[in-house]
Amino acid sequence: MEEASRDYKLEDTALQIRKIGNSVGVILPKELLARLNLKEGDKFYPVEQPDGSLRLSPFNPKHARTMEIARQVMHEYRDTFAALAK
């Protein structure tokens, strides 16, 4: 990790919503991008927390839940899948 990203203090950063074309957006400082290992074009997802706060995550929680269900089904019907694979 770069020296700048190690020294970066997230709590010292206030992000501001700005007009970008006909939309609004948030500009992330390059130090924060480096710390999160993000680059232009990467996606991350907002996840509302029970306390009302917001968590930004690099993975899609809906996809993670779908994969969890798929694993359960594959485990439950493993004999059927094995027979079909012959």
From TrEMBL:
One of its GO terms (molecular function) is DNA binding. SUPFAM superfamilies: AbrB/MazE/MraZ-like (SSF89447). Transmembrane segments: none annotated. Pfam families: MazE_antitoxin. Keywords: DNA-binding. SMART domains: SpoVT_AbrB. Residues 15-61 form the SpoVT-AbrB domain. NCBIfam families: doc_partner. This is AbrB family transcriptional regulator. It comes from Bradyrhizobium valentinum.
